[in-house]
Structure formats: C-alpha cells, structure tokens
Design goal:
The chain is α/β, with parallel strands linked by helices. It has a single domain, classed as Alpha-Beta Barrel (TIM Barrel). Helices cover about 40% and strands about 15% of the residues. The strands form three sheets. An eight-stranded parallel barrel has the order 3-4-5-8-9-10-11-12, surrounded by five helices. The chain is globular, with a radius of gyration of 19 Å.
Length: about 325
Amino acid sequence: MKTYTIPYTDLTVSRLAYGCMKIGGGWGNEPLAQTTQDAAVRVVATAYEQGITLFDHADIYARGKSEEAFAAVWGTVPRDKIVLQSKCGICFQDDPPGAPARYDFSYEHIMTSVEGSLRRLQTDYLDILLLHRPDPLTEPEEVARAFDDLYASGKVRYFGVSNHTAGQIRLLQDYADQRIIVNQVQLSLLHPYLISEGIVANIPGKPTALASGILDYCRLHGILIQAWGPVASGQIFAPPANSAPHIQKTATLVARMAAEKNTTPEAIALAWLLRHPSHIQPIIGTTKPERVKASCLADAVDLTRDEWYTLFETARGERVP
C-alpha cells in the first residue's frame, strides 16, 4: 500500500488506517469475551497483511475493551512496524454515578487516560495521542503541560486532535510546544462538508456545517486529515430503503463505477477521498476481514477529475454552483 509521511514527524503511515472502535464488542460493563478477542485478532491481522500500518483507538471504545482486545495481536503484529494511536477526552454519563455526559481536557484526565490506554494496550508508548472532541472548558495551558510531560516521559511521541475547528487548533497550538499533527474528522461522500464549503461560500441557503476552513487550515499547517465514517456506515453501497433519493443514486453510481473498474464499491467510495490533494487518510472500521480486503483495493483505484466530480455531484443531490 502506498504511504503518507506525516509532516514534522518521522512517521510513515499507510494511506488507509484501521479504526478499532468495534473490535471490543459491546459498550456495557461486561468483560471482554474470548470470541470477541479472537475475532479482533483476525481482523487486525488482516488489515496489517493488507498493508495498513496505522491503528486508531480511543479510551472509551467499548469502555476500554477495544484496546484490551487489540493487545492480543502482539504475537501477530510487530509493535515497531505499526503506528498506534489513541484518543481521550470523552467521559461517560453516570461515571461516576450522577455525572453528566461531558468532555475533559484537564491535565489530570489526560494523564490518567493515557496511563489506562497504555495498560490496556500492553505497550510502553503511543505513537500519537488525539484529543477526542473539543472541551468548552479547555485550559490550553493544562493541555500543553500534559503534552510536555507525556512527551518527556516517552509515553506519547506525537499529538493531535479530533473533530476540532481551525480556531480550536490554533488556540491549542499557540500554547503547546508539541506540534499538532493530526485532525480526525467526519468526512465521506455523504458527509462532504469540509470539501463542499469551498464551493458554496457566499451562496445563501447552502449548508456548510460550520466547517470554518478546517481543510484548508490543516493543509496550510501540515496537519494530516483523518476521515472517520468514510463510507457513512455503509450507506454509500447499502442504503436503507427509506433513504433520500440522492443517497440511493450515489449507491447505484458507486456500484456501477466499481463494476466498470473491476473493483469493489468500498474501493470507489474510499478512492474518492484519496483523490483529494489534501492527502486524506480514511479510517475504515469494519470488523469483517473480507470487507477490509475490499476496502484496501482503494489504494489501486485512480479516479479522473470527471469521475470525482460525478460522484461529488450525485452525492450532493445537485449540480455544483
């Protein structure tokens, strides 16, 4: 698989990443089942065999069981050959009892979360730590101190964010000595707002989802864009019967293009993101090894400009202005 080198780092990563949210099973407090762990090893091993080298976690995924399940791969996947990434900052409602759903970028929470991830993953360090969702109560000085201490201790090599706007990144970076190298955001054919805002600016009534120049900001500052939900939970090729007409048409077009190019619908949907000059890294999240293989075919698909715009126009449900 072709690779990206993340600017300002020594990290070379596969163009596709694997997201580990689903490999831990349920989100209750039940322990990790052996069958779930065995399935996790199979799908992670498949991703690695297909050339994927970046594996994405978060401390909350399956209440920590996804990180726990991943630790079983160390006999199959060599630690020094992959880039291991996790996220922190989201706190569950009623944990502790009576607490609201909330975000927490305090120094104590970041440090405690990283220690928990390292323990569950059975590793000495994370290659990248991301702040999961923006915390309105962020004190950037505290974040900077946590980054410095984690870096100095060797527990985290590089840092990034997820779901952050350009202004939120700029604020953190103004305080932090450690460079922000990643922004993980929702992005797909059916959720294209980071891309489409550039063509609908100053046109009344067109949704931009407050994208606020995120994509251009990240390009200007060498921040890798990681796309979560890159196939819109499968709606791009298996839309529900009651879905909007433009979603149905997108699925039909993706299937037709896949047949014409002798590839898979997954590959077409992901190749649309890979075609963008921002060097977007889609994070696939399927737990089915065959779907991992179908997705990785995207690395060999080259869309023409006309094909890219045909997909874009169809998914938007209207022509470009």
